[in-house]
């Protein structure tokens, strides 16, 4: 039995706890105005009425990558990951970051504000084209990479446990990423 559906928070939006079990790739179907506190809501296929409401930093990434006109976002895709280290109001609460985007040809680096007066480089990688349905038998390497990126953020123990649980073919498909993940792991 997959327990993922039993831990979905009761909320009107996608939040970082929804991504505990791994990253989520979404296909945008609408971008609408939100509230003063959360001015943008991104509706995506199968969102079950719980849109992604990007933080100011992630809205900056969207604008740098795709421009300021949200109409251009329709049909494009984002890979979202949980970053447990994100702080809000001085507390480490976790949050959602964009790890990959469609419609960019190379990794994109954006300087984002971390704290007042302090900026840090943030990298978003290109999201490969959508998989063809008949190729579902093949190993989905990009999904494994996305999960590996998230597990590295969660720490060395989470990374090791996840990697060791993979079938050998999956491990072989992503083994070249392992060293970078180990260095990134907290």
Secondary structure layout:
Blueprint: E1 24-33, E2 40-44, H1 56-66, E3 77-83, E4 87-88, E5 91-92, E6 95-101, E7 108-115, E8 118-126, H2 141-154, H3 156-165, H4 168-174, H5 178-184
Parallel strand pairs: 6-8
Antiparallel strand pairs: 1-2, 1-3, 3-6, 4-5, 7-8
Helix pairs in contact: 2-3, 2-5
Structure explained in plain terms:
Strand 4 and strand 5 (91-92) form a beta hairpin. The strands form 2 sheets. Strands 2-1-3-6-8-7 form a 6-stranded mixed β-sheet. It has a two-stranded antiparallel ribbon with strand order 4-5. The chain has helices at 56-66, 141-154, 156-165, 168-174, 178-184, and strands spanning 24-33, 40-44, 77-83, 87-88, 91-92, 95-101, 108-115, 118-126. The protein starts with 23 loop residues before the first strand and ends with a helix. Residues 132-138 have low confidence and may be disordered. It has 186 residues and is α+β, with helices and mostly antiparallel strands. The protein contains 5 helices and 8 strands. The protein is globular.
């Amino acid at each position: 039995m997959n327990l993922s559906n039993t831990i979905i928070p009761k909320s009107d939006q996608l939040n970082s706890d929804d991504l505990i079990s791994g990253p989520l790739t979404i296909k945008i179907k609408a971008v609408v105005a939100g509230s003063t506190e959360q001015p943008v809501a991104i509706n995506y296929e199968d969102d079950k009425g719980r849109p992604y409401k990007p933080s100011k930093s992630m809205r900056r990434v969207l604008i740098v990558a795709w421009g300021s006109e949200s109409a251009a976002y329709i049909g494009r895709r984002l890979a979202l990951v949980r970053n447990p280290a994100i702080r809000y109001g001085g507390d480490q609460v976790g949050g959602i970051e964009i790890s990959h985007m469609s419609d960019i040809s190379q990794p994109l680096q954006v300087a984002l504000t971390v704290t007042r007066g302090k900026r840090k480089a943030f990298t978003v990688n290109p999201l490969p084209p959508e998989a063809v349905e008949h190729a579902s038998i093949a190993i989905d390497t990009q999904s494994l990479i996305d999960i590996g990126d998230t597990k590295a953020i969660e720490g060395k123990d989470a990374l090791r446990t996840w990697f060791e649980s993979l079938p050998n073919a999956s491990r072989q498909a992503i083994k070249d990423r392992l060293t970078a993940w180990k260095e990134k792991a907290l």
